[in-house]
Design brief:
Layout lengths: L17 E2 L27 H27 L1 H4 L4 H37 L4 E5 L9 E5 L9 H6 L1 H18 L3 E2 L1 H21 L13 H13 L7 H12 L6 H16 L5 E2 L3 E3 L2 E12 L2 E12 L2 E10 L7 E10 L5 E12 L3 E12 L9 E8 L3 E2 L2 E2 L10
Antiparallel strand pairs: 1-13, 2-3, 4-5, 6-7, 7-8, 8-9, 9-10, 10-11, 11-12, 12-13, 14-15
């Protein structure tokens, strides 16, 4: 029995150390290059970031170590392109890799609820009740009543999906700097990407609010958002349910998600390669991975239109975002990250996020980071990042009365 959220401290300035470890070994299907995994081993003052990197590391280690062990026992079965080898890799993916990574992504989701609850001074208890193959491996209990803060309900109930978004972003940050990523990293990004749309589709079924009330994260979020709109009679709760459920499917319009999925099935399962190649959309000399996202932010459902890009020796992400209105209240914003794609000894990067909120004005968050590479044997790289926000934020949203932290 563990209560994780109680011991986390929030800060608006964070220092993050990331170790990228390379594991070399023989490979029949990929003889020219050794197997390589980018493994984040992070200490961050931001709980969401720390949790996401820990679970990403666990996903990479569990899938890569088990694959390497099986390949050592039978290289011809797990590293060849024979039908039996493909069937063996597919079986491992379905019966071991997916359940284990789903378990770690689920744990990150529950920790996200706890991190948000802790920010509002609410104690919680997380029980480990099963294994990756159990139907219900975790149970999370609130030990105190919900805070009466205006944003407490949407923040706490949306915290799990926010945590999944952070894990997805952390996995894709590795992807942007690498031609190939470990299967566990791709699988963690895929499952994290599906958390919000899958949860919304399952939790907002037709008749959800006309039957006996059974609280759930998304349904509670939707009911709170409906109540805060203060427009009785203009729309029904069921109309809001249907609207949000439909919009959540926009998360499938994500080329990074499909690139990771195709790479996992094609490179790892079909070809027997030890890592997954990222596939970019090419427009001239520019590589793009555009996407549309629909997130459950504290201020209301939020649209993201963004793209990862790679061009002229630089790599990064650009996006615009805006929330749905609550009366006259709306927030809009955008951001850009920029880093070098080549890998000299020192690789600097800059991230900027700005927003404007109808009632509370404007805010910004800036981050400066640097990668120190070419350590002995090129087996490690250290990343140090320092971030600063004008307003204490979560997912770019101001949090009145209670300072908190921004994912690095």
């Amino acid at each position: 029995m563990t209560v994780v959220g109680r011991r986390f401290l929030a800060a608006s300035v964070c220092v993050v150390g990331t170790i990228a470890a390379a594991a070399a070994g023989p490979c029949q299907a990929q003889p020219s290059t050794p197997a390589s995994i980018k493994l984040p081993l992070v200490y961050s003052t931001t709980p969401m970031t720390r949790n996401a990197d820990l679970m990403l590391s666990a996903s990479i280690l569990s899938t890569s170590a088990s694959e390497a062990g099986l390949a050592k026992v039978s290289p011809s079965l797990f590293r060849s392109t024979r039908k039996a080898a493909r069937a063996a890799r597919a079986t491992k993916l379905v019966l071991f890799d997916a359940p284990v990574v789903f378990y770690f992504v689920g744990l990150n989701h529950e920790w996200g609820h706890q991190a948000r609850a802790t920010e509002y001074g609410m104690a919680s208890e997380l029980l480990f009740t099963g294994t990756p193959w159990s139907s219900k491996p975790f149970e999370l209990y609130a030990l105190e009543q919900m805070s009466d803060h205006l944003l407490a309900v949407p923040s706490v109930h949306g915290g799990g999906m926010t945590a999944s978004r952070v894990l997805k972003d952390r996995a894709e940050a590795i992807m942007l700097r690498s031609d190939r990523v470990a299967p566990g990293s791709a699988l963690a990004a895929i499952i994290s990407s599906l958390d919000t749309p899958a949860y919304a589709q399952a939790n907002l079924y037709s008749g959800r609010f006309t039957e006996e009330w059974q609280p759930g994260d998304v349904s509670t979020y939707v009911r709170d958002w409906y109540d805060r709109q203060a427009r009785p009679g203009q729309t029904s709760l069921d109309d809001v349910r249907s609207h949000i459920r439909t919009r959540s499917a926009l998360n499938f319009l994500d080329t990074a998600l499909w690139s990771e999925t195709i790479g996992l099935l094609s490179d790892y399962v079909w070809r027997g390669e030890t890592d997954v190649r990222m596939r970019w959309l090419k427009v001239g000399g520019v590589g793009l991975l555009p996407s549309v996202r629909y997130e459950f932010s504290p201020r209301g459902p939020e649209y993201y239109v963004r793209t990862h890009y790679r061009a002229l020796g630089a790599v990064g992400t650009a996006y615009g975002r805006w929330t749905e209105r609550i009366g006259e209240d709306r927030q809009i914003g955008g951001g850009l990250s920029l880093s070098r794609w080549s890998t000299p000894r020192l690789v600097p990067s800059v991230t900027i996020d700005v927003w404007s909120q109808t009632k509370e004005g404007t805010g910004f968050r800036g981050e400066v980071a640097a990668d120190f590479e070419r350590w002995p044997g090129r087996r490690a790289a250290l990343t140090v990042a320092v971030a600063r926000s004008r307003l204490a934020t979560s997912s770019g949203f101001p949090w009145p009365e209670a300072p908190t932290s921004t994912p690095a």
